[in-house]
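Re: beginner question about structure tokens

> Can someone show what the tokenized structure looks like for a real chain? I only ever see the sequence side.

Sure, here's an example I had lying around. Input first:
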Amino acid sequence: MNREDSPLSSAEAAKPAGATGRTRRLARALAIAAVAGFTALIGLGTFTFGYGGGAAYLSDNPAACANCHVMQGHFDGWQASSHHGVAVCNDCHLSPHPVGRWVVKADNGFFHSLAFTTNDFHEPIQIKPRNRRVTQAACLHCHAELVHSLLPAKEGGDMLNCVHCHTDVGHALR
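And the corresponding structure tokens:
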């Protein structure tokens, strides 16, 4: 039985000749474009991470935090602070929870990169409310035995942030 003798479904009969070939070519072109776009995005991200010294930000080295000029004053303040010998940036500015630590690091990394790349940040740099909650949790985590009697009677109750009174503990001379 040759092609001319084979029965065609009504859908196949309604297609103009060559429509299937055009559809396949279009699908293939879109797939190639998607792979090329994805590859370019990965390449650009890899280049940016390497050029910007991104691996340094995965460490606990406080010098990495001072890579941006707006952080130099904070770094200098930390070096003169009472916490210099006992805590690094990540101890106070990241969650003490192992998973939360990386979530906060990724969140801050993305938004800091965006702000510094677009030059859309307040100078001097200011802590955001969500990061203020992280630093408060870090204070309470490290100093739990000392502050347990100062905590609210019920979970989520009102209390002052530790840095309200202890403004220069982490960053002296600011």
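Each token stands for a local structural state, so reading them left to right follows the chain. The chain has a mean pLDDT of 83.
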